[in-house]
Specification:
Blueprint: H1 6-13, H2 21-39, E1 46-52, E2 60-62, E3 67-76, E4 82-84, E5 90-93, E6 99-103, E7 118-124, H3 133-148, H4 163-172
Antiparallel strand pairs: 1-7, 2-6, 3-4, 3-7, 5-6
Length: 183
């Protein structure tokens, strides 16, 4: 579900007819995707999985904040069966811009030698109606720019994005971590 309902966007943009609803919905979705990509945030709730070849010796960064919850950490044991790792074997640091999971080296189980695999599953993103208002307004403004002047805006070029939109999304941008996300 988009972070900005169509009826709210139409009210903000002062569109009082329904003939362009499909076009405006398309622009809202494009604006939301652009802002999510630029900020490296998930603007709506998603479930994510990160696969690793073994337990790392350092922390694992869980991208696309805001972090909601850790669903599970699973691994393939020496018999090839999938097991759930006890929460006593890791810690979560959620105080920064991105969440970090650290494995506690003591007592980590042995992994299958042929296919050592660890999977981390978590939920991230803003729940419906909880995205910051300035991000919602940035989505509306960018969609409005696409709608009113579609030739002037490139999805790849921030130089033609309205200053108010760029200022807001820059303030929410998360750092690139371990080569993930756009630069």
């Amino acid at each position: 579900m988009p972070i900005v309902p169509l009826n709210l966007a139409k009210s903000i943009l002062r569109v009082d007819f329904s003939e362009d609803d499909a076009v405006l919905t398309f622009y809202l979705e494009a604006a939301e995707q652009f802002i999510a990509r630029h900020t490296r945030r998930s603007l709506s709730t998603v479930n994510l999985v990160k696969h690793l070849r073994g337990f790392p010796s350092t922390e694992v960064t869980l991208p696309l904040p805001p972090f909601n919850s850790l669903t599970s950490v699973t691994y393939r044991d020496t018999n090839g069966d999938t097991q759930t790792l006890s929460s006593s074997n890791y810690t979560l640091e959620t105080s920064g811009a991105v969440t970090r999971l650290r494995f506690i080296d003591d007592n980590l189980p042995d992994l299958n030698e042929d296919a050592p695999r660890v999977s981390i599953t978590w939920s991230a993103g803003y729940a419906t109606g909880t995205a910051p208002k300035d991000l919602q307004l940035a989505v509306c403004r960018l969609a409005g720019t696409y709608y009113m002047n579609p030739e002037a805006v490139s999805m790849l070029n921030l130089s033609t994005v309205p200053f108010g939109v760029k200022a807001v999304i820059d303030s929410y941008a998360c750092p690139t971590v371990e080569g993930e996300g756009p630069d």
